[in-house]
Amino acid sequence: MALSRRDFLRSGGIGLGVLATGLRGYAAETEPVDALVIGSGFGGSIAALRLAQAGVNVVVLERGRRWPIGATKEAQSTFCTFENPDGRASWLSDVTNDLSPTPIDVYTGVLELINGNGVVVRNGAGVGGGSLVYNAIILQPSRELFQRVFPPEIDYDEMVSTYYPRVRSIIKSSPMPDFILQTPYYKSTRVNLEQAQAAGFNTRLAEVGVSWKAVYDEIRGRNRPSAIDGQSWFGLNSGAKNSVDRNYLAMAEATGRVEVLPLHVVVDISEDLSAGVYIVSVNRIDTNGSVIERKVFTTKRLFLAAGSTGTSSILTKAKGKGTLPRLNQYVGQGWGTNGDFIVFRSGVLPRDGSGTNNAGQGGPCGHILMEDTRNPYSPSNMIELVVPKNSAFPSASLYVGLGVAPPVGYFSYDATSDSTTVNWPGDDPRLAPAQAGAASLASDLNASNPGSASAFFLNRLDGPSGGWCKRWNGL
Fold this sequence. Notes:
Blueprint: H1 5-10, H2 16-23, E1 31-33, E2 35-38, H3 42-53, E3 58-61, E4 111-115, E5 120-124, E6 137-138, H4 143-149, H5 156-171, H6 178-181, H7 187-198, E7 202-205, E8 207-208, H8 212-219, H9 248-254, E9 258-261, E10 264-272, E11 277-285, E12 291-299, E13 302-304, H10 307-321, E14 340-346, E15 368-372, E16 380-385, E17 396-403, E18 410-414, E19 419-423, H11 432-447, E20 453-458, E21 470-472
Parallel strand pairs: 1-12, 2-3, 2-13, 3-9, 5-21
Antiparallel strand pairs: 4-5, 6-8, 7-15, 10-11, 11-12, 14-17, 14-20, 15-16, 16-17, 18-19
């Protein structure tokens, strides 16, 4: 029997009778929820699915809107493009958040820009979270690197035998088929593969969370050109990107136990210890960001899955205001950038002299991973990012690299503005090995490919004013 919204929200042992005493201090319109998940990206969608499969009714709060993909080529216009951006590109911003900021109307777009202290962060916003805007790269780490980062309680063998295959089976990630790699759209990938092999790096095709059938349909003209057109960060209109709203979250909603509430922005969370519940204050907004309703949810089961910055910000704020009294001193500390660094190289040309590298095509990422395992400073790897055509150079490539950098970032709370800031001390000496490793990788790549050079090398893992690291959440 179908549940009414009231029954859905209040089923599972958290009825009004249980909360009667505690609710007196909240709002009359408080909505008790069996389990509440904040965020609908990778963490939130998986949490919602597993809770629902365990028989728990779940409400998922998502600040952004839904982005349904059109079924036909003519209807595939969900997202804007790099070349013709509009409000859909950025979260409540009057400019786009890509490589070439452009004035746009303020709208609840897919990509948020956070200007921190010493770092810039770009986050996804929408049902599906970061999976809407990430480059769809799915990498399984080596045992050595995994054990350098994670505590021994997390068993690498169990990850390899159970959890990595499970993710692949649902995200449907796989390396690019050779018949697509050999098309003109992916010439830049082939050129970078040549240059990485010339430098003696380990190379392999990266697993990518896209539907290669959808990409092939783009090539054949059956889908709107999206991946082959070099699109990515604002979404793929062809539906090629296997974002979690189309798998994990869809599976969760199909159980009948999960309700997703888009355009619901969490303002505060607190805890009523006597009633044993969490209280979540929320603003329901319209697509221009205006508040149209203030709501309060209560739950005994609260899951924060708002991404590394969103979750850290919510908890840091609650700690600063004292609304979650059981938080410890480590909340908001130990935040990292994934070890990201950015490289721009010129002279990235085919060795056979066959013209340019077709830069600006072949998304959503470069598809080949170059690994510098011999690096004398720190293990480093790098993968090409497809630069939008309106920012691309015909003989250049942009890359994002990953090193093993310590998580020296932290969040701070300002009571005056009731806001948080992410801080990245780029001059921390603990970052030196990762920075030197990144520089070494780029140097070896250039030395092995005559005529190539790092036109500018972003060799510090800090922010845009000093210039350099940009964290792409969910890369």
